[in-house]
From TrEMBL:
GO molecular function, one term: sigma factor activity
GO biological process, one term: DNA-templated transcription initiation
Name of the protein in its database record: RNA polymerase sigma factor
Gene3D superfamilies per record: 1.10.1740.10, Winged helix-like DNA-binding domain superfamily/Winged helix DNA-binding domain (1.10.10.10)
Family, similarity comment: Belongs to the sigma-70 factor family. ECF subfamily.
Species of provenance: Streptomyces minutiscleroticus
NCBIfam families, alphabetized: SigE-fam_strep, sigma70-ECF
CDD domains: Sigma70_r4
UniProt domain RNA polymerase sigma factor 70 region 4 type: residue ranges: 99-150
Classification lineage: Bacteria, Bacillati, Actinomycetota, Actinomycetes, Kitasatosporales
Amino acid sequence: MDEEEFDAFYAAAFPRLTGQLYAFTGDHGEAQDVVQEAFVRAWDHRRDFLADGSPEAWIRTVAMRLAVSRWRRARRWLELVRRDPPQDHVPGPGPDRTALVAALRTLPETQRMAIVLHHLCDLTIEQVASETGAPVGTVKARLSRGRAALARRLGETDGLGEREDGRVR
Protein backbone atom coordinates (compact mmCIF):
# COMPACT_ATOMS: atom_id res chain seq x y z
CA MET A 1 0.00 0.00 0.00
CA ASP A 2 1.53 3.29 -1.05
CA GLU A 3 0.94 6.67 0.57
CA GLU A 4 -1.94 7.59 -1.69
CA GLU A 5 -3.79 4.33 -1.01
CA PHE A 6 -3.15 4.68 2.72
CA ASP A 7 -4.51 8.24 2.67
CA ALA A 8 -7.67 7.03 0.93
CA PHE A 9 -8.06 4.19 3.45
CA TYR A 10 -7.51 6.67 6.29
CA ALA A 11 -10.14 9.07 4.93
CA ALA A 12 -12.68 6.25 4.64
CA ALA A 13 -11.98 4.44 7.92
CA PHE A 14 -11.09 7.24 10.36
CA PRO A 15 -14.63 8.57 10.96
CA ARG A 16 -16.05 5.07 11.39
CA LEU A 17 -13.29 3.97 13.78
CA THR A 18 -13.52 7.22 15.73
CA GLY A 19 -17.26 6.65 16.21
CA GLN A 20 -16.65 3.10 17.43
CA LEU A 21 -13.92 4.20 19.84
CA TYR A 22 -16.06 7.10 21.04
CA ALA A 23 -18.71 4.57 22.04
CA PHE A 24 -16.00 2.65 23.90
CA THR A 25 -14.26 5.58 25.65
CA GLY A 26 -17.09 8.08 26.03
CA ASP A 27 -14.64 10.85 25.11
CA HIS A 28 -14.55 12.08 21.51
CA GLY A 29 -11.11 13.68 21.82
CA GLU A 30 -9.65 10.52 23.37
CA ALA A 31 -11.24 8.43 20.62
CA GLN A 32 -9.66 10.62 17.94
CA ASP A 33 -6.27 10.43 19.68
CA VAL A 34 -6.17 6.64 19.94
CA VAL A 35 -7.42 6.11 16.38
CA GLN A 36 -4.83 8.58 15.10
CA GLU A 37 -2.10 6.77 17.07
CA ALA A 38 -3.31 3.43 15.69
CA PHE A 39 -3.03 4.76 12.13
CA VAL A 40 0.50 5.98 12.83
CA ARG A 41 1.42 2.53 14.11
CA ALA A 42 -0.23 0.94 11.06
CA TRP A 43 1.92 3.07 8.78
CA ASP A 44 5.05 2.23 10.78
CA HIS A 45 4.22 -1.51 10.67
CA ARG A 46 2.89 -1.72 7.14
CA ARG A 47 3.98 -5.34 6.64
CA ASP A 48 2.03 -6.65 9.65
CA PHE A 49 -0.84 -4.33 8.90
CA LEU A 50 -1.10 -5.41 5.26
CA ALA A 51 -0.59 -9.11 6.04
CA ASP A 52 -3.76 -9.05 8.12
CA GLY A 53 -6.87 -9.85 6.12
CA SER A 54 -8.81 -6.96 7.61
CA PRO A 55 -6.73 -3.80 8.01
CA GLU A 56 -9.58 -1.89 9.63
CA ALA A 57 -9.94 -4.59 12.29
CA TRP A 58 -6.16 -4.40 12.90
CA ILE A 59 -6.37 -0.65 13.49
CA ARG A 60 -9.49 -1.02 15.66
CA THR A 61 -7.71 -3.61 17.84
CA VAL A 62 -4.66 -1.37 18.24
CA ALA A 63 -6.85 1.64 19.04
CA MET A 64 -8.85 -0.34 21.63
CA ARG A 65 -5.66 -1.54 23.30
CA LEU A 66 -4.31 2.01 23.36
CA ALA A 67 -7.55 3.26 24.94
CA VAL A 68 -7.42 0.54 27.60
CA SER A 69 -3.76 1.31 28.33
CA ARG A 70 -4.50 5.01 28.71
CA TRP A 71 -7.47 4.25 30.95
CA ARG A 72 -5.32 1.99 33.17
CA ARG A 73 -2.58 4.61 33.36
CA ALA A 74 -5.11 7.28 34.34
CA ARG A 75 -6.68 4.98 36.93
CA ARG A 76 -3.26 4.20 38.49
CA TRP A 77 -2.47 7.90 38.65
CA LEU A 78 -5.84 8.61 40.27
CA GLU A 79 -5.24 5.87 42.85
CA LEU A 80 -1.86 7.37 43.68
CA VAL A 81 -3.37 10.83 44.08
CA ARG A 82 -6.15 9.52 46.29
CA ARG A 83 -3.68 7.59 48.43
CA ASP A 84 -1.32 10.52 48.85
CA PRO A 85 -3.22 13.70 47.95
CA PRO A 86 -1.17 16.75 47.08
CA GLN A 87 -0.82 19.34 49.78
CA ASP A 88 -3.48 22.00 49.64
CA HIS A 89 -0.99 24.66 50.55
CA VAL A 90 2.68 24.58 49.78
CA PRO A 91 4.49 27.24 51.75
CA GLY A 92 6.28 29.84 49.66
CA PRO A 93 9.90 30.76 50.03
CA GLY A 94 10.89 32.42 53.27
CA PRO A 95 11.98 36.05 53.50
CA ASP A 96 15.68 35.12 53.54
CA ARG A 97 15.38 33.13 50.33
CA THR A 98 13.34 35.87 48.68
CA ALA A 99 15.97 38.45 49.63
CA LEU A 100 18.76 36.21 48.30
CA VAL A 101 17.02 35.67 44.96
CA ALA A 102 16.34 39.40 44.63
CA ALA A 103 19.99 40.17 45.39
CA LEU A 104 21.19 37.52 42.92
CA ARG A 105 19.09 39.13 40.19
CA THR A 106 20.99 42.39 40.61
CA LEU A 107 24.37 40.77 39.90
CA PRO A 108 25.87 40.75 36.42
CA GLU A 109 25.06 37.49 34.65
CA THR A 110 28.65 36.18 34.78
CA GLN A 111 28.89 36.71 38.55
CA ARG A 112 25.41 35.30 39.14
CA MET A 113 26.26 32.21 37.09
CA ALA A 114 29.49 31.63 39.01
CA ILE A 115 27.74 32.06 42.39
CA VAL A 116 24.88 29.74 41.49
CA LEU A 117 27.07 27.02 40.00
CA HIS A 118 29.59 27.09 42.84
CA HIS A 119 27.41 27.65 45.90
CA LEU A 120 24.02 26.27 44.92
CA CYS A 121 25.02 23.49 42.50
CA ASP A 122 28.11 22.56 44.55
CA LEU A 123 30.50 22.61 41.59
CA THR A 124 34.19 23.12 42.20
CA ILE A 125 35.85 26.24 40.84
CA GLU A 126 37.46 24.12 38.14
CA GLN A 127 34.07 22.67 37.16
CA VAL A 128 32.55 26.16 37.04
CA ALA A 129 35.43 27.26 34.80
CA SER A 130 34.84 24.29 32.51
CA GLU A 131 31.08 24.86 32.42
CA THR A 132 31.34 28.59 31.68
CA GLY A 133 34.41 28.46 29.46
CA ALA A 134 36.21 31.01 31.65
CA PRO A 135 39.71 30.64 33.12
CA VAL A 136 39.93 29.53 36.77
CA GLY A 137 41.29 32.94 37.83
CA THR A 138 38.35 34.70 36.20
CA VAL A 139 35.90 32.41 38.00
CA LYS A 140 37.61 33.17 41.32
CA ALA A 141 37.36 36.91 40.64
CA ARG A 142 33.68 36.61 39.69
CA LEU A 143 32.96 34.65 42.86
CA SER A 144 34.79 37.17 45.01
CA ARG A 145 33.09 40.18 43.44
CA GLY A 146 29.71 38.47 43.44
CA ARG A 147 29.94 37.52 47.12
CA ALA A 148 31.00 41.06 48.02
CA ALA A 149 28.08 42.52 46.07
CA LEU A 150 25.65 40.07 47.69
CA ALA A 151 26.97 40.91 51.15
CA ARG A 152 26.42 44.61 50.48
CA ARG A 153 22.93 44.10 49.09
CA LEU A 154 21.84 41.66 51.76
CA GLY A 155 23.32 43.87 54.46
CA GLU A 156 20.89 46.61 53.39
CA THR A 157 17.96 44.58 54.77
CA ASP A 158 17.18 43.40 58.25
CA GLY A 159 16.37 39.94 56.86
CA LEU A 160 12.62 40.54 56.63
CA GLY A 161 12.52 42.36 53.32
CA GLU A 162 12.61 45.81 54.93
CA ARG A 163 15.41 48.30 54.71
CA GLU A 164 16.94 49.83 57.82
CA ASP A 165 14.76 52.91 57.40
CA GLY A 166 11.65 50.69 57.66
CA ARG A 167 10.53 50.89 54.03
CA VAL A 168 9.73 47.70 52.17
CA ARG A 169 12.08 46.91 49.29
